[in-house]
Amino acid sequence: MKSTQLAQISTSHDYTGATSNPIYLATAFQHEAVGHSTGFDYSRTKNPTRSHFEDAFARLEGGIASFATSSGMASIQLILNLFKPHDEILVSFDLYGGSYRLFDFYEQQYQLKFTYIDFNDLERVRASINEHTRALFIEPISNPQMQSVALEPIYEIAQEFRLLTIIDNTFLTPYLSTPLEDGADIVLHSATKYISGHNDVLAGVVTVKDETLAVQLGQFHNMIGATLSPFDSYLLVRGLKTLHLRMDRSIDNAKRLSQVLNENEAIDDVLYAGTTGMLSVRLNKAYNTREFLKHLEVCIFAESLGGTETFITFPYTQTHIDMPDEEKEKRGINEQLIRISVGIEDFEDINADILQALTKSKAVEVIV
């Protein structure tokens, strides 16, 4: 069972009988002679603690190799090394602003082309594929609009046209979804989020099921050097042990919150896919978003997600600040939209805090 696998992940079986793997801080490893190696030479290339996490995570994903990076963005950057100038990647229209910023940089500096489309529009997907198309980059639940994508038809199209399917699975995690087992080629996570789960690690991870991709990404990982530190690798293993418990509680809280907010006059739209701890809401224009954020007492106004605490983010000036205004407008990212990463606190405390902040954010009508 997945819960048992997570609870006992990467348990040590060395001669000491330790129930937790050690942290190997060494940057270099001794050789007995020329041509003789323990399998570890230099920590950028391979580190025992990082390997413990990578091997365990690859098993969770149903892949053959995982690569732990220094951030979620470093994971995307690692994957982009697979492409050359003038290659085209079809990308989820609604997606994380940091991904959009990186793609724009690669378009300007390295002549990669990124075309943004709705992956639920299969006719548009097929019509967009041309001789330069090499891959599909998909957020199965988009950030911040929480739009779900049916992936099975996309996998079929990708196989038909021999395209790589890249899934950013940050919102879902391997506990809820294992795209490699369903048809994806590459899965990435910002492990800073649910994988760590405690807002104390900056990390990313890429997993593949194909040996050729594993070799290529392994070479890039070593050359670029944006690898994860031993201590952070250890913290990710620790975080994974409670992933199922945290996700279940977060999802339960999010479902209850979405129901409550759906009935609140202060909220015009509740955007919730129903399967994660993430939701977004659009405040009625009679309510001031900035005042709402200022009056939070239990929930935290911060730019991240997936931790034990409930974080509320303002995409317009935070996650999507570098997206041009006209692009934000197309995606409905305006000053009434907030994103909520629902934590594992008592639901009544989360709910009461949001309701009191909404009450204090209502604009005062002035009668002349």
Describe this protein's structure:
The chain is an alpha/beta fold and 368 residues long. The protein folds into 2 domains: 2-241, Aspartate Aminotransferase, domain 2 (3-Layer(aba) Sandwich), CATH 3.40.640.10; 244-361, Aspartate Aminotransferase, domain 1 (Alpha-Beta Complex), CATH 3.90.1150.10. 38% of the residues lie in helices and 15% in strands. A 7-stranded mixed β-sheet has the order 1-7-6-5-4-2-3, sandwiched between helices. A 5-stranded mixed β-sheet has the order 8-9-12-11-10. The radius of gyration is 22 Å and the shape is globular. The mean pLDDT is 96.
Characteristics:
368 residues; alpha/beta; Aspartate Aminotransferase, domain 2; Aspartate Aminotransferase, domain 1; 7-stranded mixed beta sheet; 5-stranded mixed beta sheet; 14 helices; 12 strands; 15% strand
Strand order of the largest sheet: 1-7-6-5-4-2-3
Give the percentage of residues in beta strands: 15-25%
Number of continuous helical runs: 14
Q: Output the structural class.
A: alpha/beta
The level of helicity is 25-40%
* Integer count of domains: 2
Mean pLDDT: 96
Radius of gyration: 22 Å
By DSSP, the count of extended strands is 12
Low-confidence stretches: none
Q: Which fold name is given in CATH as the topology of the largest domain?
A: Aspartate Aminotransferase, domain 2
Short description:
The protein is α/β, with parallel strands linked by helices and 368 residues long. It has helices at 2-7, 48-61, 72-80, 97-110, 122-128, 151-161, 173-176, 179-182, 211-224, 230-240, 243-262, 289-294, 325-330, 347-361; strands at 65-69, 88-92, 113-117, 133-138, 164-168, 186-189, 204-208, 267-271, 278-283, 300-301, 311-313, 337-341.
